[in-house]
Amino acid sequence: MTRYDLAVVGAGPGGLAAALTAADGGLRVALIDGAPEAGGQFYRQTARQLRARRPERLYHAWSTWASLRDRLADHRTAGRIAFLTERHVWSVEPGDGAEAAEPGGFRIHALVGAGQTASETVAAGGLVLATGGYERVLPFPGWTLPGVLTAGGAQAMLKAGLVLPGRRVVVAGSGPLLLPVASGLAAAGADVTGLYDSSAPRAFARHAAALGRNGEKLIEGAGYAARLARRGVRIRFRHSVTAAHGEDRLEAVTIAGPDGREQRIACDALAVSHGMLPHTELAQTLGARLAADGSVAVDTEQRTDVAHLWAAGETTGIGGAALSQVEGEIAGGSATARLRGQAPTGLAAKQTERRRLTAFAEVIQTAYTDPADWERRVTDETVLCRCEEVTAASVREAVSDLGATDLRTVKLLTRAGMGWCQGRICSPGVAGIARCPFTPVRTPFARPVPLGVLARSPDPEHSPDNEGTAS
Amino acid sequence: MTRPSRRLRTPLALVEAQPGPAFHVTFDGRTLNALPGQTVAAVLWSAGIVSWRTTRVDERPRGVFCGIGTCFDCLVTANGVPNQRACLVPARPGDVITTQRGDGHDSV
User: Fold this and answer.
1) Domain A137-274 classified CATH 3.30.70.660?
2) Contact partners, residue A322, CB within 8 Å, separation at least 6
């Protein structure tokens, strides 16, 4: 089994920056990602075989991406970074199998390829988790109809496969992601009938001072808004989607305005999301502490409270690609020094930049708000857990009749969150309907694993000790 | 900066894609065109198909929801193998794709 100085899980802006910085510093790095190409969600690449000659038309900050991509290519050529693509990490464990028991050291187990029926193992002295985030979607009647999908999902399918979810598309929810999604869909030919965000513009005005220090981010938002205006797409704040209609596929949505007035809009796709949540399963598996907001807690060097374990990007708090990249650079710089038993130098400028971007992200998180009264609008028949088909009525009964007061008890009583996705999709909605605190999903494995993989040792050819991990 | 003209507004035209030759797959017996590099979900969307699974309990139709492999709503049966995420699995020439009913195990 090849042992690397550092393994990085996730090749989005955070993970890429960490891997590149560590390789610049002379470490031998394994960069592991589930996709066939680097980029993560923000820079998700169009499938190579589609041979896009002008891919930059689907992206923001393409020059930043191009620089990351070129540096990765150089390090791969030089043998400093092994880029392990289409590896879906399902478990990490302490101990890298080295003879001398040093602090730190990890083994990373990943399912290989699209079929995901075989597992392989990478060992490394240090580990950076840059596992990113996933979208939070609050439920509403009709949200399980085909044609209703997450805003990020619509964007991912467009960037990767050059396809649209429909011709007439409504974009709704809340958060900074909606602008680029609506802009991208419109540029690619969708008739985007409107962008509806439940937040109030007044909340942004209240934080004008903090926002004003981040001019480039404001200009980025204004740029999207201008492009949408040019394509005739209306942006409406304090408007929420309250229902999706149709028999076997989406035909229309109901949008409610601030005065309670509702309008029905015909459409064949709805791209919806209400912000992002950090992916923290792997960090939790290793016992890393989470912060109060559910993200992985890190210090000023992006170190978790587990020796030789760093985290960077959305997994340490939602803040966007630029912040993720700075965090990755700090993590990579820290790892380069710390894995050699030295104290890092030269991180101060990056730490200042991180503080500035974090302050901006916190204001953005506060300013974007959930639709008012969304819980009340969820009818009893509405399916909350999409996998196990658990309705709002069942969840409400678990609270009112059976006395559940936390998400775990609701799950055990109703099966909400016990299906394929392990509650990643439904937990925010179930917690809201049950009026319990939202707690991050905790699962034995970071993704469903075939029983055959668990029954075998993780990497029989390469693990001399032949230890199993299924116990 | 050049802006693509109105008549060119498709995703493929926007990025001036020049994919290799299209190939065929079938969905519930119907022949569909597919482009190299596209996932099963992308091929189905291109044909205007948005659902390819019915749920285990209420037998309701489902398709893509998260688009990135997290939600498992887009499960499909491909070449007789059920429970594959259509948003991740690449389409291959000659794929036989069928609507997955329930857990997919009674149809194979």
Assistant:
1) no
2) A13, A61, A217, A357
Give A 217-256 residues with CB within 8 A of chain B.
Answer: 248-250
Q: Which residues of chain A have pLDDT under 70?
A: 1, 96-104, 115, 205, 208-219, 441-444, 448, 450, 454-471
Task: Provide the shortest C-alpha distance from residue A372 to chain B (in Å).
Answer: 24
Residue among A54, A134, A386 minimizing CB distance to B73: A386
What is the number of residues in chain B? 108
Rounded distance between C-alpha atoms, residue A442 and residue A423, angstroms: 9
pLDDT tens, position by position, B10-37: 999 999 999 999 999 999 999 999 999 9
Q: Which residues of B touch A134 (CB under 8 A)?
A: 66, 68, 70
Confidence (pLDDT) at A461: 42
| ipTM here | 0.93
pLDDT in tens, A26-42: 999 999 999 999 999 99
User: Does A248 sit within 8 Å of B61, measured CB to CB?
Assistant: yes
Superfamily of chain region A378-434: BFD-like [2Fe-2S]-binding domain (1.10.10.1100)
pLDDT of residue A468: 36
**Angle, vertex CA B54, rays to CA A415 and CA B79, nearest 5:** 115
Mutate to test the interface with A, among B43, B50, B89, B95 (most CBs of A within 10 A): B50
Task: Count contacts between A and B (CB, < 8 Å).
Answer: 160
Per-residue model confidence as pLDDT tens digits over A160-212:
999 999 999 999 999 999 999 999 999 999 999 999 999 987 777 677 666 66
Task: State phi, psi for A83 to the nearest 5 degrees.
Answer: -95, 110
Q: What residues of chain B, 73 to 92, have a C-beta less than 8 Å from chain A?
A: 73, 75, 87-90
Pairwise CA distance, residues A234 & A195, whole Å: 6
Q: Beta partners for A296?
A: A290
| Residue boundaries of the structural domains of chain A | 3-134+277-345, 137-274, 378-434
Radius of gyration of chain B (CA): 15
Contacts of A223 (CB under 8 A, 6+ apart): none
What was the pLDDT predicted at A99? 52
Any idea which fold B19-101 has? Ubiquitin-like (UB roll) (3.10.20)
The pTM is what? 0.91
Q: Do A150 and B41 touch (CB under 8 A)?
A: no
Nearest to B42 among A161, A268, A424 (CB): A161
Domain A3-134+277-345, CATH = 3.50.50.60
Q: How many Å lie between the alpha carbon of B106 and the closest alpha carbon of chain A? A: 18
Evaluate whether A312 touches A18 at the Cβ level (below 8 Å).
yes
CA dihedral A395, A397, A402, A405 (to 10 degrees): 40
Q: Which of A147, A156, A162 sits opposite B17 (nearest CB)?
A: A162
Asked if A148 is an interface residue toward chain B (Cβ–Cβ < 8 A), one would say: yes
